Automatic annotation (TrEMBL):
Source taxonomy: Bacteria, Bacillati, Actinomycetota, Actinomycetes, Streptosporangiales
Compartments where located: Cell membrane; Membrane
Protein name: Transport permease protein
Domain ABC transmembrane type-2: 52-285
Any Pfam family: ABC2_membrane
Length: 287
């Protein structure tokens, strides 16, 4: 009689070996860019699947243009003369970039509160790639919002008068400011709870009002005009007015005389400070 032999149990598959982190600088850069694009795609898909958020973000700039252009604009006077709606639109472009801080920090704070950020940190992902992806997704959203605002401005009579090259340079300065402010939003979003993030709009309104957004600093009280002239938002808005050829340029202060230079230096300074702080904060969460 043939003896029956017990079959040996199946050998479980070996667990996957996580990829080793890159060691050279070019490999780390490629790793960060690849992870950043993955996170950016996730954020964009999440945004597209929330129609209410899309509707709010697209309708808000339209409402602001109509309200300031036609309701308040009838009582506004441009220093040195000129059409107020042509003066207004660069300010509206800059305000939209500034208000994007609230969008960024709310999304970052929500991800941190619901464990999404912890999930990213538990995976073999580049820390800088995660925050880079957030910044890329928000920058793409800002391009769409800016395009809608430009369309609204054309409808209400705003025009760029210095040719397409200078107009594109102005758009580039606006997006540079938005890119810099994204890192402010990421850092603050990693530090506060979503309940506090909902109130982020409150400090943004005075920051956009005490600037040359809606009124020239020369028409403000002396101390307020000095603050408004050195506001980073004022530099970008004044540079855009110069590049677009819109009214409202000029002023006696050094900041008013060199808006394009400041429109580059202010964002670069903000990125130099807040980008490394954001990456460091992400790496040190819950420590």
């Amino acid at each position: 009689m043939t003896a029956l032999t017990a079959s040996s149990p199946p050998v479980p598959p070996a667990p996957p070996v996580p990829p080793s982190p890159p060691r050279t600088a070019p490999d780390r850069l490629r790793w960060a860019v690849a992870d950043g694009w993955t996170v950016a795609r996730r954020d964009l898909i999440h945004w597209l699947r929330n129609p209410s958020v899309i509707a709010y973000q697209l309708l808000w700039p339209i409402m602001m243009v109509l309200m300031f252009g036609y309701v308040f604009g009838s009582a506004m006077v441009v220093a040195g003369g000129g059409d107020y709606r042509e003066f207004l639109m660069p300010g509206m472009f800059g305000q939209a970039m500034m208000f994007g801080v609230a969008t960024t920090l709310t999304a970052v704070s929500t991800d941190a509160s619901y464990g999404v950020t912890d999930r990213f940190r538990s995976m073999p992902m580049s820390s800088s790639g995660v925050v880079l992806g957030r910044s890329l997704a928000d920058l793409i959203n800002s391009v769409l919002e800016l395009a809608i605002l430009v369309g609204c401005g054309l409808v209400v009579g705003w025009r760029w008068n210095q040719g397409p090259v200078r107009a594109l340079a102005a758009v580039g300065l606006l997006l540079l400011l938005r890119f810099a402010l994204i890192w402010v939003g990421i850092l603050v979003g990693l530090m506060i709870r979503p309940e506090a993030a909902a109130a982020a709009w409150a400090p943004l309104f005075p920051l956009t009002m005490v600037a040359n957004t809606f009124v020239s600093p020369e028409q403000m009280p002396g101390w307020m005009g000095a603050i408004a002239a050195w506001n980073p938002l004022s530099a970008t808005v004044a540079a855009c007015r110069e590049l677009f050829g819109n009214p409202g340029m000029g002023g006696d202060s050094w900041a008013a005389q060199h808006p394009i230079l400041l429109a580059v230096l202010w964002p670069l300074a903000l990125v130099a400070v807040f980008l490394p702080l954001s990456v460091r904060r992400f790496r040190r969460l819950d420590r």
